[in-house]
Write a structure and sequence with these properties.
Length: about 425
């Protein structure tokens, strides 16, 4: 059911921007005039600290030092240093997070690791609506090990706690759903699942840098996340993984590459894992990508996640209210939870012509994205979005839908990336 019509003039949002404690951060991002970027939940925009960090790595490190850069500029220590910086944003004390690989690869590592921590248990449990790559990696591990050693089961989200049995080694959950933006109660679910003997692995792809996360405070076991969405580390930025300190002396991760060795440059024939999060490394880190992420993370120095969350809620609440107060947008249905406590930093709407509407809206300089089968998805990144962007975005959405601009044939063409 739609809420009673509530519309505010643009001056209302301009006043909110003048009082915004995060307003000064916007200038660090390269966003051209007129563009309203509501796709930071897929890829964050370029920020100046990231660009400077890459230029410095090229000109002052790689070009000047060549191979000596591994020592002279401590490239070798980047994965754990960056891990600790991300740890501050996700409630993880130092020595539990490492930056490496992709979410998919890190999931494979941690799922296998979790099975080792629960010997005799073979079951990975997840929800039917979890992000596909999470399920794919579990399916791949099952195919590799065989169902006698690893089996993925999927259940409805509301049944996840009751579905844990004596054979469940790990429960794999995504805190903020990629389609609807629904946010799970990490603390309550972690405790309930652990009480039944399972480990809990959290996917923070749509959480890190968007909503407050307290892995240590929630007693989480394992987690993964990416660097290219709300952390703004650039396309293909390295991901990260978290392993609670209490588990680090347990089982081994399966990808025993040389960077995870206790002494990689001893070139020993037998593998000995490094202590701490470094033991979860595999191949050589991508230094330029790490430097870009490092620059982007510097924007978070001094940022209060409570202020980020407060602005996120204000932006998404205003967007929903403006959409629902517009007669021209009556054909759009809200998919995200109405209660902001249950919603991450995005709003999802549904419409039979969702793909075409998103494409037409992009032509109007409002960038969101489309998800199958009929979802218009808008991400709200408080570091650079303004309150007036909400007002302007909804007015442009009204023009697209109300005037049926999305009926143009060019908006029906599906590209490789949607």
């Amino acid at each position: 059911m739609r809420r009673p019509a509530v519309r505010h003039p643009r001056t209302h949002y301009e006043a909110l921007d003048r009082a915004d404690p995060l307003a000064g951060v916007r200038g660090a991002f390269r966003l051209r005039d007129g563009l309203i970027y509501l796709d930071g939940n897929s890829l964050g925009p370029v920020c100046e600290p990231a660009a400077r960090a890459v230029r410095r790595a090229l000109d002052e490190e790689w070009a000047a030092s060549l191979i000596a850069g591994w020592n002279a500029h401590d490239w070798i220590g980047l994965p754990t240093r960056l891990g600790d910086r991300i740890g501050r944003l996700i409630g993880a004390a130092p020595g539990q997070v490492v930056v490496c690989d992709s979410i998919s690869v890190n999931l494979f590592k941690l799922l296998a690791f979790a099975l080792g921590l629960r010997p005799g248990r073979t079951r990975i449990l997840s929800t039917v609506d979890n992000f596909p790559t999470d399920l794919y990696m579990a399916q791949g591990l099952q195919a590799l090990l065989g169902e006698g050693r690893c089996r993925l089961d999927r259940v409805a989200p509301e049944s996840i706690v009751d579905a844990v049995d004596a054979d469940t080694a790990v429960v794999m959950l995504t805190q903020v759903d990629f389609r609807s933006g629904r946010m799970l109660d990490m603390r309550a679910l972690t405790r309930a699942l652990q009480a039944k003997g399972a480990l809990v692995l959290w996917d923070l792809a749509h959480s890190a840098g968007a909503v407050p996360v307290d892995l240590d405070g929630c007693g989480a076991d394992l987690a993964v996340g990416c660097g290219y969405k709300y952390l703004n580390g650039g396309p293909g930025a390295p991901a990260f993984l978290y392993v609670a300190a209490r588990h680090q002396a347990g089982a081994r991760q399966p990808l025993s590459g040389w960077m995870g060795h206790a002494r990689p440059f001893a070139f020993e024939a037998a593998y000995r894992p490094a202590a701490g999060p470094a033991g979860f490394l595999a191949g050589t880190p991508a230094i330029l990508a790490c430097r870009a992420l490092e620059g982007a993370l510097s924007l978070w120095d001094g940022i209060d996640m409570a202020a980020v969350r407060a602005k996120s809620v204000a932006l998404t609440e205003a967007f929903i209210a403006e959409v629902e107060a517009s007669p021209a947008l009556a054909s759009l249905e809200l998919l995200s939870p109405r209660d902001p406590a249950l919603r991450g930093s995005q709003v999802a709407l549904s419409h039979p012509d969702a793909h075409a509407i998103v494409q037409a809206l992009i032509e109007e300089d409002v960038v969101g994205d489309f998800r199958e089968p009929d979802v218009l998805r808008f991400g709200f990144t408080p570091l650079y979005l303004r309150h007036v962007d909400v007002f302007d975005a909804v007015r442009r959405l009204e023009a697209v839908v109300g005037e049926r601009r999305h009926d143009a044939e060019r908006f029906r063409v599906r590209r490789a990336v949607t």
